[in-house]
Structure formats: C-alpha cells, structure tokens
Amino acid sequence: MARNALSSPGNVPALRVLILFLLLLPFHSIAARHDYHDALRKSILFFEGQRSGRLPPDQRVRWRKDSALHDGATAGLDLTGGYYDAGDNIKFGFPMAFTTTMLSWSVIDFGRTMGPELRNAVKAVKWGSDYLLKVTAVPDVVFVQVGDAYSDHNCWERPEDMDTLRTVYKIDRDHPGSDVAGETAAALAAASIVFRSRDPGYSNLLLNRAVRVFEFADRHRGAYSSSLRSAVCPFYCDVNGYQDELLWAAAWLHKASRRREYREYIAKNEVILRAGDTINEFGWDNKHAGINVLISKEVLRGRAEYFSSFQHNADGFICSLLPGNSHPQVQYSPGGLIFKAGGSNMQHVTSLSFLLLSYSNYLSHANKVVPCGETTATPALLKRLAKRQVDYILGDNPLGMSYMVGYGARYPQRIHHRGSSLPSVLAHPAHIACKAGSRYFLSPNPNPNLLVGAVVGGPNSSDYFPDSRPYFQESEPTTYINAPLVGLLAFFSAHP
C-alpha cells in the first residue's frame, strides 16, 4: 500500500526523498570507518608514479626511473618533465593542465586539513606548473603534446624504455587552441595562489605567464582539435568548445590577481561565452559547473552581487545532482555511485563531488541553502552526498572493493598501466621492446608494481568491475581522477 502510494505520480516528491535517503545510507549495514588520511597520502603518492623526466632524489615510488629525457629536442627545446596522463606514455597538455588546476584548487580550499601531506601536495602542483612554464616559454605558442599517440598505443612498454615517436605538437597564432591555452592559463593562475606566500617570486612568474597565455588564448580564438585533429583526436578531442575555458581562465586570473579587467571580462562575456550551458558537467573538457561554483564563492561572501547569475547557475547544478531529482545525464548506480555515460566514470565522480563539497563550504560560511523544488539542499546534505561517493571509491560498494590501488584489503590488481604491469627496470634491467610487452598486457597475473594511490575508471552502471587490463575504460587510472580527490580526502580526513 505504501509502496504504491510512493510510486504514484502525485507522490513524486516523497519518492525523491526516499531515493535520496537510500543513496545516502552506507552500503554496508555497519560502514567501515575509513582512514581518509591514509587514502590522502596515497592519492598524492600516485602522482609520483606518473612523473616524466628526470626524477628527484626524494622520489618515493622507487620502481619508476628517469624517462623521456629528450622530450622537446626535435623542436630545439627542453620539454622534459610533467605527467603522463594515464596508463600510456604520452604527455597530453589539456588534461595535464586541468590536473594542475584541480591539484591547486585542492590545496587552496583544503590545504589547511592536509596536515603533513600538504608538503607533498604542493610538490605535486609544482611538478605540473614547472612543466607548464616550459611549454609556454615562447610567446604566442603553447606546446600541447609530446609523443605520437598512435605509435605509443601500438606498443606496451615501460616509459623508461620508450622508443616510440616523441613528436612535439603546438598551437600558435595560425593554429589556435583557446581551450588548451585557456586551461593552461587557469592552471598557472591557480598555482600562483598556491605559491603566493610560499615562494612569491615563483608565484609572480606563474601569474605573469598566466596573463600572457590568456591574452594569446583570447586573441587567437579556436579549438585545438580543429588545429591538431589527427594528433589529439579521439584521445583528448575538445567536443565542448573553447568558450568555457576562456571564462574559466578569466575566473582564475581574477581570483589570483584581483584585477578589475578580469571581472569586467567575465561580466561582458558571460552570455557570449555561454556560462550557463551544460551546468551539470565538469571535467578536463567542460568547465561550466566549475566556473559557476568558483565565482559563486565571491557572491556568497557578499563581495560580488554583479555575479549573482553565476550563483543561480551553481544552484541549478547542485539540484541536478540530487538523487531522485537528478538530470537525465547524471544517474546513480544501484550501489549509489554517480554515473555518466562514456569512459573513465570516476573522473565524473571525483570532479562533481569536489564541487559538491566546495559549494557546501561556501554555503556554510554564508549561512545559505539551495532550494531544489520539494527538497532543500543544505550544506550538510551536500557534504553527505560527496562523502558517500568517496566512501564508495574506498570500498563501501556492492563488490566491497576499494577502487584505489593499495588502499583497503581488496583493490584492482590488473590496472591498465604500462609501468605498473611490466617488470620494473630494477627487476628486469634489459630493454623490453614495443611488442615484447604484449605478453604482460595479456597476462592474467596481477601487476608486479603497485601504483599506490591510483584510482581506476571504475565499475559500470550496474556496479560491476572487470579487473582486467584490456578493459581500459574501467581499469585505467588518470591524473584527473585523482586531482580533485586530493581535496575531498583532505577535508574528510579532518571531518570524518
């Protein structure tokens, strides 16, 4: 009788409340108490396993060694360093810049709760920002990729053995890429805030470079996948357009510099650059929800009433994520995981959860809530939603599996990652050629090297996870999954 009443059209609000209640429950009747600080430490350690270039003396992931030491040589430049984006050996500038932005935002908003891990988080930011300074050293040019993705993906070899093409790809005045240049400017500006008090000289260098790169992005408009389609598509093809990255960069430059010109740019271009579009999206390709949440902080503090439309957009984004009230493009698995169509679902889980938590904090300080029809999104509710996603990643899910390598009793053993799946240089000093690595890729054995802290793409919409290297959409880790997770884990390590 009650079930029929709840499912009738006249009781949709009651159904939504029930769904919300059920999805906020821990999956197990007695939830595991997670060690969020241990997970935080491991989530940051992961970035050391993704480093390219000459590794520093304090490198903690010891099975990794120097790699790609001649990157940029074909262009007469030093483009060594930076991060491999995922389980391959390419340096893709678009996701690397977004990773750096999100690591910086994690430190800016949640660094005070990182404890001793703050030092390592700042190092992770600097490994990215140092590289972004290299690729933007030439005015009106951004080197956006090192390595040919097709030749790289045709091999299964360690980064230390790499003998595939290390082609350098760039954007310039005649071949624009406002999306990747805008994200690079945002990353440099965000990192400048991280180093403002720690290293003022370095911070100024980052901010000045961000200004220059943004001017280039704005003056020479276009999508980088139009200029470099054969190199960047279908890997990190921009399907969302470059407009959001221009607003995103301006928002970070305003936050970093407090200059009126960026405030005026945002106000002038809000409609032209479609600030309110696809507000339920946030990731390396789509910054809309992030723009609205970032700018709303100023509005909620009473400092920027002229940006109230951004808060309205952010409120709409929040409502679109509520279980039972969610947007058609945002669903929840039976076990309670945010799920969006496409590969590497955990990138959506961590990025959207980061915004839920950040907005929750901004609302708390302003003593505000978000009305969502029959439901009221309080700061406490948003924190619980974000925490539920983090707990799912750490093991509160139907399979009882942590999706972070090295955390918990059960985690993925066969991740889609070359360096992790092949014998280390220490264990196997001889060169492993391009096709010689195939037997390791196809092996049913666990990876010999533990990439501690790596969070994989995750289970499908039915909470099923194939722990198998060929299933790359589920088993491949990426830097842009982990970057927003760093901030989430920092907060919950202090507020479990």
Automatic annotation (TrEMBL):
The keyword Nuclease does not apply. Residues 1-32 form the signal peptide. Residues 36-489 form the Glycoside hydrolase family domain. InterPro entries: 6-hairpin_glycosidase_sf, 6hp_glycosidase-like_sf, Glyco_hydro_9, Glyco_hydro_9_Asp/Glu_AS, Glyco_hydro_9_His_AS. It catalyses: Endohydrolysis of (1->4)-beta-D-glucosidic linkages in cellulose, lichenin and cereal beta-D-glucans. One of its GO terms (molecular function) is cellulase activity. The active site is at H416, D467, E476. This is Endoglucanase. The gene is LOC115982479.
